[in-house]
Amino acid sequence: MQSWDMLAQTDPYWAVLTSDDRRGNRWSEEEFFATGEADVAAIMTRLASLGLVVDRTRALDFGCGLGRLTRALARRFAAVDGVDLSHVMIEKAVAIGPVSNVRFIHNPSEDLSPLDDEAYGLIVSLISIQHMPEKAAAIYVGDMCRVLARGGVAYLQLNTFLSVSDPRAAAKLTRDESLLNRVYRSARSVFRKKRLRMDTHYFRLSRLLNILERKRMQLVAVVPDSSVPEPFVSHVVIFRKRDQAPLPAPAGVTPAAASSGPAMESGGAPGGPPPGAAHR
User: Fold this and answer.
1) CATH number, position 61
2) What one-character DSSP code corresponds to residue 216?
């Protein structure tokens, strides 16, 4: 959390949308928020193509940062909550300017306990979960199932593993799985001076799907995503909280309700940044 607060103080737009040519406060506010509008438009288009009807009463932007997606969602929903663990990010999001139907919420909790049960027709998270260790991310995703309204939809982008073809992946796996390195990192976190860092983690797809099954969520689609550079492998996972109405089967798409499983698409998510850029 301290690193995110420090990043928010020094280069907040770049901390949210990390493009090499924009480091050093080179994002303009207009360009920055235009990327959020493009991403949310692409999300809504994809959900419609899957035959999903989204309740527009309230949406949640998880890991909202400065509200890049939150403000774009506010043009499409009656109310939107943006939640982030960094109080500095939230303070800066509010300072950018009020939006009548938006709440920015600082949540330092390890879950979503400040949020009400079944409150959101849509939950969106783009390139935020990747900055959490898998154990922490699993708790948040599990609690998203609680706050998602019946019939509501979640659209989550996350790093699901590492590219086995990239030698950097093998090196990272060795570091991650080595007991000696785990002990070293624990000791370093206590004695080493804090510095700015943006850790990146993966959340195994198998573990995520197991959580959704336990929570009785309906998996709609798993979509390869190209917005994260190697050695990470990224996907968009779309799921739905079950209600009494069956999910319609749009032409050309096989929904998760069918025996063949969720819809699978190829290619990166539309509206995202080019490879090499990462955003929240």
Assistant:
1) 3.40.50.150
2) T
Q: Residue 276 has what pLDDT?
A: 39
The pLDDT assigned to 127 comes to 82
For the chain, the domain total comes to 1
Q: Where residue 249 falls among pLDDT bands split at 50, 70, 90? A: low
pLDDT in the model for residue 114: 95
pTM of the model: 0.78
Residue 170 within a domain:
no
- Identify which has the larger pLDDT, 47 or 278: 47
Residue 249: which domain range? 2-162+197-279
